[in-house]
Write a structure and sequence with these properties.
single chain, Arc Repressor Mutant, subunit A, two-stranded antiparallel ribbon, 9 helices, 4 strands
């Protein structure tokens, strides 16, 4: 909410908060602030700490926790011994339609793999490099996308494996 004042009146108006605004919102817990900071794109822990006002150690701990549940992954970029990270499935991800303009059904594992978001496009290749290592985090990321909860990865693992098999056949 914003307020504007004049000699005759006070006007209150609302506006949508941006991810950067949310990252600074002290009423959010630290994990939600880190996620909000990453909604605008990949960042290093020190950048996230600056954006959120959180201590760098707190940010690093939250990033580690988010990696474990498949919400965050490293980009491969390193600066001053810090790894740049990004959200696996940002909340504000645009949904891409098919060539005919129809919106895909991304509410199912099959639909998600049929028209994968950018973060999912490279995952089958990574999975094939080391299935035992990559399947749990992939399932967690798919569950985070579908249910908003990466801890529910076990619920989608069977369907994810089927989708990966189908992908390998093409």
């Amino acid at each position: 909410m914003s307020l504007s004042f004049s000699d005759e009146m006070i006007v209150a108006s609302t506006r949508e908060l941006t991810p950067a605004d949310l990252a600074q919102e002290a009423t959010l817990n630290a994990e939600d602030r880190v996620v909000a900071a990453l909604e605008d794109g990949a960042a290093y822990p020190d950048e996230i700490a600056e954006t959120t006002g959180l201590a760098r150690g707190t940010v690093k701990n939250k990033i580690t926790a988010l990696k474990k549940v498949g919400r965050v992954q490293i980009t491969g970029e390193v600066r001053t011994q810090m790894e740049r990270v990004r959200l696996v499935a940002p909340r504000h991800r645009p949904i891409r339609g098919s060539a005919a303009g129809a919106t895909p059904d991304t509410s199912t594992v099959a639909g998600l793999f049929a028209d994968p978001p950018e973060w999912l496009e490279k995952q089958p290749e990574l999975y094939r490099e080391d299935p035992d290592r990559h399947l749990p985090s992939l399932c967690a990321a798919v569950a985070a996308e579908l249910f908003g909860d990466g801890l529910r990865g076990d619920e989608v693992c069977e369907e994810v494996e089927k989708a990966l098999e189908k992908d390998a056949q093409h």
